Amino acid sequence: MCQSSKAEGVAHHPHRRQLTPRQKKSYLDAVLCLANTTAISGLPGAINRFDDYHAVHAEQKPYIHWVGHFILWHRYFVATYEQALRSECGYKGAQPYWNWSLDATPDSPNSTTVYHPSIFGPHLAFGGNGPKVVPTPEQNRLNITGGTGGGCIPNGPFAAPAFYVNIPSKQCLRRDFVPWIMNSFADPQLVTRLLSQPDYTAFARDVERERNFV
């Protein structure tokens, strides 16, 4: 699904609910295609093109968060990822997004409705939660509570052996749903407040809740 917006040459980016089953499959197939295409970045650990993007983000992490160019950097990053899907893997659509404010239940912080199976399910979706694993202190440096998973995802197109994460080393894709975090930060009222900011600086600061940028 790639429609022209009012600005010539700018793709319309749909959210997941707007995709047909065929479009969902097309996107997932393109991502798996990247994961089976040889890396070109030369970054440590990168084996395939999907790894290239993972490695770039990992390398740049100290310089692209809680800074004024956080949004600009990530917007360009996603644009280059979309271009790779299209030019290297034949994807015809635009990069979709998850409008999580449609699924969040801020009045029920422990609800798992936000992790709807149409997105986090085994069929035409991204796979579910991992089995419950108690994290080590090293794995949970922020001391986050309320985790419901943490192990290797058991189903979907990104479950092993079809897909592996290679940065920093080869391992299965793990996932840990923490309902209270998503239901709090995806609150539609927060999205409305964010979009009502008067300028880019106020918007960027509100996104990361940071008053002063480097």
| Total strand segments | 0
What does the main sheet amount to?
A: none
Low-confidence runs of at least 5 consecutive residues: 1-7
**Which overall shape is indicated by the principal axes computed on the Cα atoms?**
globular
Average of per-residue pLDDT values: 91
- What percent of residues adopt helix (DSSP H or I)? 25-40%
Strand content: under 5%
Spell out the helices and strands N to C. HHHHHH
What this model shows, in words?
It is a single chain. The protein has about 210 residues and is an all-alpha fold. The protein has 6 helices and no strands. α1 packs across α3.
Topology:
Blueprint (H helix, E strand, L loop, with lengths): L20 H14 L14 H16 L5 H20 L89 H7 L2 H8 L4 H9 L6
Features:
214 residues, mainly alpha
Give the structure's gist in a few sentences.
It contains six helices and no strands.
